[in-house]
Amino acid sequence: MSFSRALFLLFPLLSLAFSHENLDTHLLPRPLIIEYTDKVETHLEESKEEEVILRCTSWRFSVEANNHNPWKTIPEECAEYVRDYITGRGYGMDLQRVSKEAADYAKSLELAGDGKDVWIFDIDETLLSNLPYYAHHGYGLEIFDPVEFDKWVDKAIAPPIEPSLELYKEVVGRGFKVFLLTGRSESRRKITVENLINAGFQDWDELILRSTDDHVKLATIFKSEKRGEMVKEGYRILGNSGDQWSDLLGASMSTRSFKLPNPMYYIP
Amino acid sequence: MSFSRALFLLFPLLSLAFSHENLDTHLLPRPLIIEYTDKVETHLEESKEEEVILRCTSWRFSVEANNHNPWKTIPEECAEYVRDYITGRGYGMDLQRVSKEAADYAKSLELAGDGKDVWIFDIDETLLSNLPYYAHHGYGLEIFDPVEFDKWVDKAIAPPIEPSLELYKEVVGRGFKVFLLTGRSESRRKITVENLINAGFQDWDELILRSTDDHVKLATIFKSEKRGEMVKEGYRILGNSGDQWSDLLGASMSTRSFKLPNPMYYIP
Questions:
Q1: What DSSP line would sit under chain A, residue for residue?
Q2: A131 vs chain B: nearest CA distance in angstroms?
Q3: Residue A256 has what pLDDT?
Q4: CA spacing 20 to 30 A to A100: which of A43, B29, B139, B163?
Q5: Chain B residues with beta carbon closer than 8 angstroms to that of A17
Q6: Count of the separate structural domains present in chain A
Q7: Is position B14 within any domain?
Q8: How confident is the prediction for chain A on average, in pLDDT?
């Protein structure tokens, strides 16, 4: 058989080999198997990763829609997902979006001008960011440690959540009464004021913290009671911003509530 | 040259071609340039696509957390994202998750046994799926057309949302009074009953539709009023499942509410 004849016979085989990767297996089992295995593993890794992202996105939705509650830590398999969300662009984009939604709503309102129109803000993960703390505690992977957390709070260096600071200024500027309603203890009033001012917040009308009596209450109850007192005093609660559903739900709810994202922890 | 000799010479070329796809490029410059351009374009396409996915995920969360409202259609750039979510595994996974969360909660309750413990279900996109309709209307990209939609409703062929059917059976089986509270018109009672039964739902205690008087009311108001009547009659609303926040929020709210995903449309 001549070379050209051999080539002629090989050509269809050759072009087949170039155009249909999967067919090689029949011709050259060994190197092919290695390549095939690599690809399979990569594909498996990728689809495993996609599967985890799918599940963790679903988990995050159930958390943000308040279907999943209570919960103590983020699912272990979502550790990377949550970290990527928080440190990547997702969290920032969500914060900006909710701030814009709230600002658009605030701008659409005509205030009565009697000083009774109120906007409520929660503090932690709403006005102030504790990410420098949570970065060292797995972004919600570790069970909440109140002693360690209080040490962080006492430093009074929590940075502002910038989109919230923008909304805050907008709301203050439009003449809303601004009430800060936080689960922080009354014993942390001074340090909280110091931190808020350092972070650029000012001109709030009232800062409401938990008194000793309030400590046994669930956040939902404590905050509902405080909103109830506002309503009794004739205030109209038009807007409420918080990262926890316990900031927003319960009695004497605001006309509109704005849920900031927080896949790191849950407060009942 | 013998055939075996020709094969021997061809073998390195053949195995090179199989194992290092990219090396061919040195041999064949022209397609290489094209390939390079393709790659750059592919990367640009990919990062543009990632950007859209990021924005649309953010949009979806703002919808599901009720920050974004009202809205008439999905953002145009999210058409593909929403379709992929609905027809892919995301929507199904989210439906299963919320059904499980609700079932876990239902199982955790001890009913009084006086027949006054209630679970409320919305119908459209909660018990029955209108996906066959929305598949022909861009999954929320088109403005809602009530005339066309009613034609679909009148066919009475909407399939059940399977995870909701499971929850429904669980709740009925545990002895809850089941009230179906829907924005559908009273004129559609017969066809709705027919559809529900065809889809596997049975043994509900009451089916509440909108009367002529109710048509001017926002869904939130209509549903709040109906829940108010239940409470007046001594019922305890322990669970409420709906795909719209107007199913869940307002007065006489349920002890726990379960928000099913729905990025296709919004009802105030």
A1: --HHHHHHHHHHHHHHHHH-GGGGGGT-HHHHHHHHHHHHHHHHHHHHHHHHHHHHHHHHHHHHTT-S---SS--GGGHHHHHHHHHSHHHHHHHHHHHHHHHHHHHH----SSS-EEEEE--BTTTB--HHHHGGGGGGTSPP-HHHHHHHHTTT-PPB-HHHHHHHHHHHHTT-EEEEEEEEEGGGHHHHHHHHHHTT----SEEEEE-GGGGGS-HHHHHHHHHHHHHHTT-EEEEEEESSHHHH-SSS--SEEEE----S----
A2: 20
A3: 98
A4: B139
A5: 14, 17-18
A6: 1
A7: no
A8: 89
